[in-house]
Amino acid sequence: MIRLYDYELSGNCYKLRLLLHWLDVAYERVPVNFHPGREHRSRAFLQDINPLGQLPVLDDGEFRLRDAQACLVYLASQYDHAGHWYPDDARTRGTITMWLATADDLTRSIAAARQHYSFGLDADLARCEALAHATLRLLDDALAETQAASGQWLAATPRPSIADIACFPYAALAPEARIDLRRFPAVQAWIRDLRHWPGFIAMPGIFDPKL
Question: What is the distance between the alpha carbons of residues 169 and 102, in angstroms, rounded to a whole number?
Answer without folding.
Answer: 13
